[in-house]
Write a structure and sequence with these properties.
Elements (H helix, E strand, L loop, with lengths): L2 E6 L9 H13 L2 E8 L9 H19 L4 E5 L2 H11 L3 E2 L4
Parallel strand pairs: 1-2, 1-4, 2-3
């Protein structure tokens, strides 16, 4: 069994999400585990803005809903390519898969 990663970029919906539906079908077909991936880019954080608080409130709610649905969310932090490289090196079962 491998781990399939579903990268949530801007669409934090678990319902009516075409990419998530395809990833779930792929994982079920191959009897693989599906893990959500969310990238945090520190260059985008504006701590003193209202957007900052709203963003993290929305992400926290998304993680709670995903957890309740049985979908773990793995967070990446830092420069995107280095973060994904570190993820694949630390998790030998993880295979980046394009759907």
């Amino acid at each position: 069994m491998s781990v399939i990663g579903m990268w949530f970029r801007k669409d934090l919906r678990l319902t009516d999400n075409t990419a998530l539906i395809a990833a779930l079908k792929e994982a079920q077909l191959k009897n693989d585990k599906l893990v959500g991936i969310f990238h945090l880019n520190p260059l985008q954080f504006k701590v003193t803005s209202f957007n900052h608080d709203y963003f993290f409130t929305a992400v926290a709610h998304f993680v709670e809903v995903a957890k309740a649905a049985g979908l773990p969310i793995h967070f990446l932090y830092g420069e995107i390519e280095a973060a994904f490289e570190e993820l694949t090196q630390k998790n030998s079962d993880f295979k980046p898969d394009l759907l």
